[in-house]
Model the fold of this input.
Amino acid sequence: GAVVSQHPSWVICKSGTSVKIECRSLDFQATTMFWYRQFPKQSLMLMATSNEGSKATYEQGVEKDKFLINHASLTLSTLTVTSAHPEDSSFYICSAREYRAGNNEQFFGPGTRLTVL
Amino acid sequence: ILNVEQSPQSLHVQEGDSTNFTCSFPSSNFYALHWYRWETAKSPEALFVMTLNGDEKKKGRISATLNTKEGYSYLYIKGSQPEDSATYLCAPGYSTLTFGKGTMLLVSP
Done:
Protein backbone atom coordinates (compact mmCIF):
# COMPACT_ATOMS: atom_id res chain seq x y z
CA GLY A 1 0.00 0.00 0.00
CA ALA A 2 0.82 3.73 0.03
CA VAL A 3 2.12 3.92 -3.53
CA VAL A 4 2.69 7.25 -5.22
CA SER A 5 3.41 7.50 -8.93
CA GLN A 6 4.87 10.39 -10.85
CA HIS A 7 4.80 11.07 -14.56
CA PRO A 8 6.88 11.62 -16.56
CA SER A 9 10.03 10.20 -15.00
CA TRP A 10 12.14 12.44 -17.18
CA VAL A 11 11.52 15.23 -19.65
CA ILE A 12 13.66 17.36 -21.92
CA CYS A 13 12.18 20.56 -23.24
CA LYS A 14 13.17 23.73 -25.01
CA SER A 15 13.54 27.00 -23.16
CA GLY A 16 10.26 28.89 -23.01
CA THR A 17 7.97 25.88 -23.05
CA SER A 18 5.80 24.71 -20.17
CA VAL A 19 6.05 21.30 -18.61
CA LYS A 20 3.42 19.52 -16.53
CA ILE A 21 4.33 16.85 -13.97
CA GLU A 22 1.67 14.60 -12.46
CA CYS A 23 1.69 13.06 -9.01
CA ARG A 24 -0.85 10.37 -8.16
CA SER A 25 -1.61 8.45 -4.99
CA LEU A 26 -2.60 5.01 -6.26
CA ASP A 27 -4.11 3.31 -3.25
CA PHE A 28 -5.04 6.02 -0.79
CA GLN A 29 -6.63 9.44 -0.71
CA ALA A 30 -4.06 12.17 -0.33
CA THR A 31 -5.54 15.21 1.32
CA THR A 32 -2.14 16.88 1.21
CA MET A 33 0.58 16.67 -1.39
CA PHE A 34 4.03 18.21 -1.31
CA TRP A 35 6.35 19.23 -4.11
CA TYR A 36 10.11 19.20 -3.64
CA ARG A 37 13.05 20.12 -5.81
CA GLN A 38 16.58 18.78 -5.57
CA PHE A 39 19.63 20.32 -7.18
CA PRO A 40 22.82 18.24 -7.54
CA LYS A 41 24.47 17.40 -4.23
CA GLN A 42 21.78 19.31 -2.34
CA SER A 43 18.95 18.24 -0.09
CA LEU A 44 15.31 17.92 -1.04
CA MET A 45 13.87 21.43 -0.77
CA LEU A 46 10.17 21.88 -0.20
CA MET A 47 8.62 24.08 -2.87
CA ALA A 48 4.98 24.03 -1.91
CA THR A 49 2.25 22.26 0.02
CA SER A 50 -1.11 21.66 -1.57
CA ASN A 51 -4.34 20.63 0.08
CA GLU A 52 -7.08 19.14 -2.03
CA GLY A 53 -9.49 21.77 -3.25
CA SER A 54 -7.54 24.79 -2.03
CA LYS A 55 -4.67 26.96 -3.21
CA ALA A 56 -1.14 25.75 -2.67
CA THR A 57 1.09 27.29 -0.02
CA TYR A 58 4.47 28.18 -1.49
CA GLU A 59 7.75 28.31 0.40
CA GLN A 60 9.70 31.53 0.50
CA GLY A 61 11.53 32.20 -2.73
CA VAL A 62 9.35 29.92 -4.88
CA GLU A 63 7.42 31.83 -7.53
CA LYS A 64 3.81 30.74 -7.58
CA ASP A 65 3.28 32.06 -11.10
CA LYS A 66 6.26 30.09 -12.30
CA PHE A 67 5.36 26.82 -10.61
CA LEU A 68 1.62 26.28 -10.91
CA ILE A 69 0.20 23.63 -8.63
CA ASN A 70 -3.23 22.09 -8.97
CA HIS A 71 -4.67 19.57 -6.51
CA ALA A 72 -8.16 19.12 -7.82
CA SER A 73 -8.76 15.59 -6.59
CA LEU A 74 -7.76 13.43 -3.65
CA THR A 75 -5.48 11.33 -5.83
CA LEU A 76 -3.90 13.79 -8.24
CA SER A 77 -1.73 16.88 -8.00
CA THR A 78 0.06 18.53 -10.90
CA LEU A 79 3.02 20.85 -11.03
CA THR A 80 3.40 22.97 -14.16
CA VAL A 81 6.71 24.69 -14.76
CA THR A 82 5.73 27.62 -16.93
CA SER A 83 8.09 29.15 -19.49
CA ALA A 84 10.87 26.87 -18.36
CA HIS A 85 14.47 28.06 -18.54
CA PRO A 86 17.75 26.18 -18.11
CA GLU A 87 17.98 27.24 -14.45
CA ASP A 88 14.74 25.30 -13.83
CA SER A 89 16.53 22.09 -14.75
CA SER A 90 16.34 19.98 -11.63
CA PHE A 91 14.88 16.87 -10.05
CA TYR A 92 11.28 17.37 -8.97
CA ILE A 93 9.67 14.93 -6.55
CA CYS A 94 6.27 14.82 -4.93
CA SER A 95 4.97 13.22 -1.78
CA ALA A 96 1.48 12.56 -0.51
CA ARG A 97 -0.04 12.30 2.92
CA GLU A 98 -3.29 10.60 3.85
CA TYR A 99 -5.49 12.34 6.32
CA ARG A 100 -5.53 10.50 9.63
CA ALA A 101 -5.49 12.05 13.07
CA GLY A 102 -1.90 12.42 14.23
CA ASN A 103 -0.50 11.15 10.94
CA ASN A 104 2.34 13.05 9.35
CA GLU A 105 3.91 10.32 7.25
CA GLN A 106 4.67 11.26 3.66
CA PHE A 107 4.92 8.77 0.81
CA PHE A 108 7.05 9.75 -2.13
CA GLY A 109 6.87 9.35 -5.86
CA PRO A 110 9.98 8.35 -7.81
CA GLY A 111 10.63 11.88 -9.10
CA THR A 112 10.92 13.63 -12.45
CA ARG A 113 14.19 14.76 -13.99
CA LEU A 114 13.62 17.98 -15.94
CA THR A 115 16.22 19.23 -18.38
CA VAL A 116 15.59 22.54 -20.11
CA LEU A 117 17.74 23.21 -23.16
CA ILE B 1 14.89 27.15 7.69
CA LEU B 2 16.02 24.31 9.94
CA ASN B 3 19.67 23.31 9.80
CA VAL B 4 19.78 19.54 9.34
CA GLU B 5 23.20 17.92 9.08
CA GLN B 6 23.93 14.35 8.14
CA SER B 7 27.28 12.66 8.43
CA PRO B 8 29.16 11.14 6.88
CA GLN B 9 28.27 12.37 3.41
CA SER B 10 29.13 8.96 1.98
CA LEU B 11 30.30 5.62 3.25
CA HIS B 12 31.74 2.55 1.56
CA VAL B 13 31.75 -0.69 3.56
CA GLN B 14 32.21 -4.37 2.92
CA GLU B 15 29.39 -6.87 3.12
CA GLY B 16 28.94 -7.98 6.70
CA ASP B 17 30.25 -4.76 8.24
CA SER B 18 28.04 -2.89 10.65
CA THR B 19 27.74 0.83 10.17
CA ASN B 20 26.06 3.90 11.56
CA PHE B 21 25.35 7.45 10.54
CA THR B 22 24.25 10.61 12.28
CA CYS B 23 21.51 13.15 11.79
CA SER B 24 21.75 16.44 13.71
CA PHE B 25 18.89 18.90 13.97
CA PRO B 26 17.78 21.82 16.15
CA SER B 27 16.47 20.53 19.47
CA SER B 28 13.99 23.36 19.94
CA ASN B 29 10.39 22.96 18.76
CA PHE B 30 10.91 19.30 17.99
CA TYR B 31 7.90 17.30 16.77
CA ALA B 32 9.14 14.22 14.97
CA LEU B 33 12.07 12.82 13.03
CA HIS B 34 11.69 10.79 9.85
CA TRP B 35 14.25 8.44 8.33
CA TYR B 36 14.00 7.47 4.67
CA ARG B 37 15.92 5.04 2.52
CA TRP B 38 16.32 6.11 -1.10
CA GLU B 39 17.58 3.70 -3.72
CA THR B 40 18.58 5.05 -7.11
CA ALA B 41 15.68 5.37 -9.56
CA LYS B 42 13.14 4.47 -6.87
CA SER B 43 10.91 6.38 -4.47
CA PRO B 44 12.26 7.26 -1.03
CA GLU B 45 10.96 4.63 1.37
CA ALA B 46 9.94 5.54 4.90
CA LEU B 47 11.96 3.65 7.51
CA PHE B 48 11.04 5.22 10.84
CA VAL B 49 9.07 8.05 12.37
CA MET B 50 10.38 8.86 15.82
CA THR B 51 8.84 11.25 18.28
CA LEU B 52 9.95 10.57 21.87
CA ASN B 53 13.32 11.30 23.42
CA GLY B 54 15.10 8.02 23.95
CA ASP B 55 13.03 6.27 21.26
CA GLU B 56 14.66 3.27 19.69
CA LYS B 57 13.10 1.64 16.65
CA LYS B 58 14.11 -1.44 14.72
CA LYS B 59 13.26 -2.86 11.31
CA GLY B 60 15.18 -6.03 10.53
CA ARG B 61 18.89 -5.20 10.60
CA ILE B 62 18.27 -1.46 10.71
CA SER B 63 17.66 0.43 13.92
CA ALA B 64 17.55 4.06 14.97
CA THR B 65 17.81 6.04 18.18
CA LEU B 66 16.64 9.53 19.01
CA ASN B 67 17.91 12.19 21.39
CA THR B 68 15.63 15.22 21.20
CA LYS B 69 17.36 17.10 24.02
CA GLU B 70 20.67 17.31 22.21
CA GLY B 71 19.19 17.14 18.72
CA TYR B 72 20.55 14.01 17.09
CA SER B 73 19.53 10.62 15.80
CA TYR B 74 21.67 7.63 14.88
CA LEU B 75 20.83 5.04 12.24
CA TYR B 76 22.54 1.67 12.58
CA ILE B 77 22.78 -1.12 10.04
CA LYS B 78 23.98 -4.46 11.38
CA GLY B 79 25.73 -6.82 8.98
CA SER B 80 25.40 -4.62 5.88
CA GLN B 81 24.34 -6.29 2.66
CA PRO B 82 24.73 -5.02 -0.93
CA GLU B 83 20.98 -4.41 -1.07
CA ASP B 84 21.40 -1.87 1.75
CA SER B 85 23.21 0.38 -0.71
CA ALA B 86 21.15 3.56 -0.87
CA THR B 87 21.04 7.13 0.32
CA TYR B 88 19.64 7.49 3.82
CA LEU B 89 17.80 10.73 4.51
CA CYS B 90 16.62 12.19 7.77
CA ALA B 91 14.01 14.91 8.12
CA PRO B 92 12.71 16.56 11.27
CA GLY B 93 9.28 18.12 11.16
CA TYR B 94 5.61 17.51 11.58
CA SER B 95 3.40 18.98 8.93
CA THR B 96 6.32 19.85 6.69
CA LEU B 97 9.71 18.16 6.61
CA THR B 98 13.20 19.61 6.28
CA PHE B 99 15.64 17.15 4.77
CA GLY B 100 19.34 16.69 5.29
CA LYS B 101 21.57 16.01 2.29
CA GLY B 102 21.68 12.35 3.14
CA THR B 103 24.34 9.71 3.68
CA MET B 104 25.14 7.65 0.61
CA LEU B 105 25.97 4.09 1.59
CA LEU B 106 27.68 1.66 -0.74
CA VAL B 107 28.04 -1.95 0.38
CA SER B 108 30.46 -4.05 -1.64
CA PRO B 109 30.09 -7.83 -1.84
User: Anything to note?
Assistant: Chain A is about 0% helix and 55% strand. The mean pLDDT of chain A is 93. The interface with chain B takes residues 4, 34, 36, 41-46, 49, 93, 104-111 of chain A (CB under 8 Å). The first strand of chain A starts at residue 4 and ends at 7.
